[in-house]
Amino acid sequence: MNDTVPRPPTGVGRTRVQEVAALAAASFPGGVNSPVRAFRAVGRDPVVLVRGEGAYVHDADGTRYLDYIGGWGPAILGHAHPAVVEAVRDAASRGFALGATHPSEVELASRVRAAMPSMELLRFTSSGTEAAMSALRLARAATGRDVVVKFAGAYHGHADAFLVEAGSGIATQGIPGSAGVTEAVARDTIVVPFNDREAVSLAFDRDPGRIAAVIVEPVAANIGVVPPVPGFLEHLRQVTLAHDALLIFDEVITGFRVGPRGAQGLYGITPDLTVLGKIVGGGMAIGAYGGRRDIMSLVAPVGPVYQAGTLSGHPLAMAAGIATLEQLPPERYALLEAVSAELERCLIAAARDAQRDVSVIRVGSLLTVWFGRVAPVDAAAALASDRAAFARFFGGMLDRRILLPPSQFEAWFVSLAHGGRELEATIDAASEAFRA
To answer: Would the pTM of this model clear 0.85, i.e. be above it?
Structure first.
């Protein structure tokens, strides 16, 4: 592997990480190609990683970290799993983008549809953002309505309709949450608190016949891990059916992560449309959306809803996804659940021993350590957590060579490469960091 990049003029004692970071700052806004990589929320300098293997990543100075970022979710097998690497290498030897249907697209789609029967037809895209944006366009076309309900703190990619914040009140029209998002777009988005059934019902009562869809992360994972309270997802299914609106599950994070059938299998809820990404592409750039046959039949070329992508169904992404899913029979999920549960138990014990008020919230191999007495159930409660304490904890773990997601509001990702030795190292570091 070639980890070299052009070297800028350097001062005495400048490390390779610092050199690359300086080059990045000269090329990219904030020195990064995705904001969370800047590490600003935790007050640390960003890492510069050059390779990963199993549960570990290595920076440009040769420092090895035990990794819980996991490529932000797709590395469920660990980094550079031999079967996935070999599959991608084999696919690359036959060419990259070929510009036509490839057999591997059909094979991966068949695996996805078998795991998630709600996806009777699907379409691959190049990112989760693109898939979510397309699913929303499709929902509006299928219902003839414009308004969408989303939940405060949820992230469904950076399409304009999703970069909307809650206004005042329990169920309100949104306001632009990013520069460049127009008020007209925001007006068609209603933002309500996660886990609040009353707010969802109120939104439908206030806008009868105007709501096209409710889009939800069935397990909120972009405000940290916040599971649905009992009955919440069932209520979303009931209210959307009652009002002839669609229910969209954004399973970009939870799909093939919380179980072999995603969150819809875990909780027994059948959405109308599902959005996927991350694990389904084995770490390659990918997204997918799919659902009921009658709805998906509105997508071009058989229907009037246009969506296309030059690199959609890319052979390398298909190969990586197939190879990853092949390594995930039910017994591997049982192992992953056991490892994740042990990590949760030990983190709680370490915090208690350090007399630190924390809550550890876990669903499958997703977890978040919250600094506060009460586990959050929505974005407002998550924002009330002690983020300064998390930043100190993050720094303590990083100094002990444990790499966590650099934000209180991101999930830890446990992989099948995390074994007993990795858990022991994590808990030893956490015991010290909790006391710091």
So the answer is: yes
